[in-house]
Amino acid sequence: MQETTVSAEPFLKLKDLLNTYLDPDKVTIILRAFEIGNAAHKGQTRKTGEPYIHHPVAVAHILASMRMDHESIAAAILHDTIEDTPLTKADIVREFGEFIADLVDGVTKLDKMKFRTRIEADAESFRKLMLAMSRDLRVIFIKLADRLHNMRTLESMERPSRRRIARETLDIYAPIADRLGMNSMKHELEDLGLANLYPWRHRTISEHLQTMTGHREEIVGNIMAAIEKKMDEASVPCRITGRKKSAYSIYKKMLAKDLSFSKVTDFYAFRIITQAETQCYLALGAVHSLYQPKPGRFKDFIALPKANGYQSLHTILNSPYGLPIEIQIRTEEMDIMASKGAAAHWQYKTGEDADGSAQVRAREWLMQLVDVQRHTGDSLEFLDHAKSDLFPDEIFIFTPKGKIIDLRQNSTALDFAYAIHTDVGNHTAKALVDKVEVPLSTRLDNGQMVKILTDPDVQPLPEWLGFVATARARTAIRHYLKSLRQEDTVALGLRLLEKALNARGSSVEAITPERWDYFLSENLLERQEDLFHDLALGTTLANMVAAKLAPDSNLFPTDKDAVEALSIAGSEDSAVSFGACCQPVPGDKIMAFVSTDKGVVVHRVSCQNVHEFRKHPDRCVDVVWAPITKGKFPVAVRIIARNTPGVLANISASIGRADSNIETVAQPEANPEQATLLFTISVKDRDHMARVMRRLKRNSYVIRVNRVG
Is residue 459 a part of any domain in this protein? Predict the structure, then answer.
């Protein structure tokens, strides 16, 4: 087989570019990286048929065009060596040091053989990438450049692979580029993604755009001349450019707003680049005096930068040609930041960017992601969290001290609390929006001021997961509930074992350390807590464990009163559940069944399922209500009422006046005279339930009321 000849031309072009901004000694290091990478990839080719080394050199060229530092360029040339060649990280450390080796390792994917599916492997690779990014932001610059070159050469892949890679690019990598403020890269990734995912749609939109641009050249020239004249009159030094809409942005608007192509593209777009921030506002005033602005269509991203650090003034004007004009106004520095984002000033290596810079904002975002992944055990769940924040429209919310917190759209007051700090979110008692108390589930609007009041006794509730919108809040709530559940189940498991041992005339304290060690070792358990957890979940039965821990004890102690029933207070949270079939409330006679999938489930003794439970006595547990119970308990009530207007509101009011909340309501059947209503209401105990029922019976609309189950 004939060996593919490696052309030096790509590297020579890279070298020429590097010499324009890097010192000779830095270029020498990159040359050494090329020599080692070229040798490592010798004999390897891409799907295109060209030598493999051309790919990492092209990736390095993309980074060099962004004026990245020499370590990033060297790592880009070596970025596939650990994965695809015999070269190891240790080899790279010896040759180039830890910094470059860590960058290469950060970009390297994981071994897919460790995972059950490709999706799982890709999710874990993404998780690894995010963690590497948090240590050194340059990892993602290399990865994005790698993805961009792969997208540019994707035509050599099979159609299914092209679609998969294009979808991944649009779902993950283009949004990451957007989050980092790297708009130029984002737009190219999106355009290439659409072209490979939906070739016909991309081609049709692109052809229409070219045709439309040609038809409007004269109008565009007239508008630009008018703007230039107005800027001269206002003494605003600037340059003005026409701005093209991308095929992908048009495609997204057509989908989102169900618009035709012409309605999406019917406007002119221009960009005014000034030399100073004050000149941006002068330019804004000038264009507003030239053409009438559209009400409500002005956005100031200079005073309130986007989450990715993007700064610009956006305004839409009415043109004399019957179509709107969109104008963006920014400084030269803002324009560079809009294009390159967090990578814009990396080569200066200051590490002390201004507080609002793209790098600082990117770092803050990454730290939030690291916090999310720390409490997320599953890679697929972490990927979902990250994708949900990649990245919707932002809203800006103010703290009482004037600090700006940026959140995703549809965020609630509780999301705001978690954005301040996890402990604030976990103990949020009240939220004041513009000084008015609102429910924690209230959706926030741009520019509102929110104050959070905390209470150390408040804890996250499972229902909070139903309305929070941010990954940070969801992960923090789940983590808290999981740790709480662990504590609850361990405590309940201990109580179950104590009860089983008491039945044998023994106790947990009576078991010797030696017997504990032997039992745990025999059952492959590390700690007693692991056993208690299994007991509470029903995967291990307390009676069987008690028989092994205390085999010589009396199974039927003479003092029957010594074996106490397990008390249920309603404060066991997720460790104890209540049967949906009979919905027991304090005051009902109860028993419990230890299920293998639900753990300890409490039922009324009169429940229709108890007969079946009694066939498994080893899983039945004697339980009683504690003297003091906590919380409210759901109970189902069937009401036969007169079918007249306002009946539902009237009955609901009666339930509310009895200090009970309505959880659900349904109307399974009705006729012209009567309606059957099924309510699930919450009560404190059996006495409270009786009070609600008496009040309902006194209601003139109610014919009959009874408890269900």
Answer: no
- As for how many domains the chain has, the answer is 4
pLDDT for 546 equals 84
498 is catalytic: no
Let me know whether 698 and 610 are in one domain.
no
- The pTM of the full predicted model, rounded to 2 decimals, is 0.51
Catalytic residue of the set 83, 120, 168, 529: 83
Q: For the chain, report the end-to-end CA distance as a whole number of angstroms.
A: 80
pLDDT in tens, 547-603: 888 876 655 544 444 456 778 877 666 667 888 889 999 999 999 888 776 778 899
Residues 6+ apart with CB under 8 A from 240: 224, 227, 228, 231, 270, 271, 272, 273
Answer whether 653's CB lies under 8 Å from 625's CB.
no
Q: Are 177 and 247 members of one domain?
A: no
Residues 168 and 58 in one domain: yes
Do 647 and 586 share a structural domain?
no
Cα distance between residue 348 and residue 192, in whole Å: 31
Please say if the pLDDT value at position 409 is more than 80. Answer: no
Active-site residue flag, 84? yes
- Write down which residue in 170, 202, 234 finishes a domain: 202
The residue from 16, 71, 80, 84 that is catalytic is 84
- Residue 206 CB partners (closer than 8 Å, separation 6+): 247
With contact defined as beta carbons under 8 Å apart, do 498 and 452 qualify?
no
**Per-residue pLDDT for 226 more than 80?**
yes
